[in-house]
Automatic annotation (TrEMBL):
Its main location: cytoplasm. Pfam families: KH_KhpA-B (PF13083). Forms a complex with KhpB. The lineage of its organism: Bacteria, Bacillati, Bacillota, Bacilli, Bacillales. This is RNA-binding protein KhpA. The keyword Secreted does not apply. It comes from Bacillus songklensis. Belongs to the KhpA RNA-binding protein family. CDD domains: KH-II_YlqC-like. It is found in: Cytoplasm. A probable RNA chaperone. Forms a complex with KhpB which binds to cellular RNA and controls its expression. Plays a role in peptidoglycan (PG) homeostasis and cell length regulation. Signal peptide: none annotated. Keywords: Cell shape, Cell wall biogenesis/degradation, Chaperone, Cytoplasm, RNA-binding.
């Protein structure tokens, strides 16, 4: 899952070497903290959050096979 988020994020940003993902697992959920360069935060979020919503949709669809909920948090 981590590599999927990283692949999507690196394709969107101008500074792909600044893309970092931290995974925090719990009993019922897994949270991925996506950190990008401050200049790229707008590209990852998109207008009205459409790109961020699309990333979350793809990740949740890929994680539907597991019993845990998956969350993606984005920071710059």
């Amino acid at each position: 899952m981590k590599s999927l988020i990283e692949t999507i994020a690196k394709a969107l940003v101008d500074y792909p070497d600044h893309v970092h993902i931290i995974e925090k697992a719990d009993e019922q959920k897994v949270t991925y903290l996506l950190t990008v360069h401050p200049d790229d935060i707008g590209k990852v979020i998109g207008k009205q959050g459409r790109v961020a919503t699309a990333i979350r949709t793809v990740v949740s669809s890929a994680a539907s096979q597991h019993d845990k909920r998956v969350y993606v948090e984005i920071s710059g």
